[in-house]
Amino acid sequence: MVSYAITGASRGIGFAFIKHLAQDPSNTVFALVRNVNSSQPLTDLAASHKNVHILKADVTLPGELDAAAAAVSQITGGTLDVLVENAAFLIGEAASFTLTDLVGDPEKTKIFSNDLQLSVEGNILSVVHTTNAFLPLIKKGEIKKILVISTGLADADAVIEWQWKDNVPYGASKAAVNMVVAQYSNALVEDGVTIVALSPGLVRTQTQDWAPAFYEKVTNIFRKSKPSFEGPLSPEESVRLMLETLGKLTVKDGGKFLSQNGNKDWL
Asked: Which residues are part of the catalytic machinery?
């Protein structure tokens, strides 16, 4: 029996992890969410799968994470095999701003500064808080793996190649996350813990009115770099690829920042 805990599990990639892992009745799957009543699909899945447990945990609140880890420990007997850190602050008010948009514009600068602070809390500190809360359980697990979701937008060379100019708080904070992952790996290698950062690829997770135009725009940008790029992955396909990659990685791969395919091809 393998135990998994996934943060940000109410929708998108996080929910896709829960659905995929719940299919194997021998798995024990913990869905960590800010609001346990916010996702009817998750509630329905847990009702039909006895191996799925929904736990409240805002990843910016260490106390809630500690409580969730304690709840996991009670069910598993003090262990956890795999931790997937998916929760993130993705799109704020400043997502469409370029850095030069801030020049001479105090209001945009204020909005950008706020988004950057939220990104630090939701993307960087959250990884530290989540990892530290569950680390004692991971160390006692059989598999001892931690997957932190990153993004190709955290790769400076790729950003230059794509001529990407906006969503700076997200990309910059995820670049910092990659460094946090590398530092954790250095500290945990002797414990046999494998921690890696994986980009899920471009995934069709947004369903708002603006989403179709957004995905078309981004697909066109990426096709300039890679003409064969077919467009966004479904959350289910992205999760399948990431789990396949994670399964192949060992402690020797700890600290790496890779794509869903286990390489540096972000598309």
From this structure: 170, 174
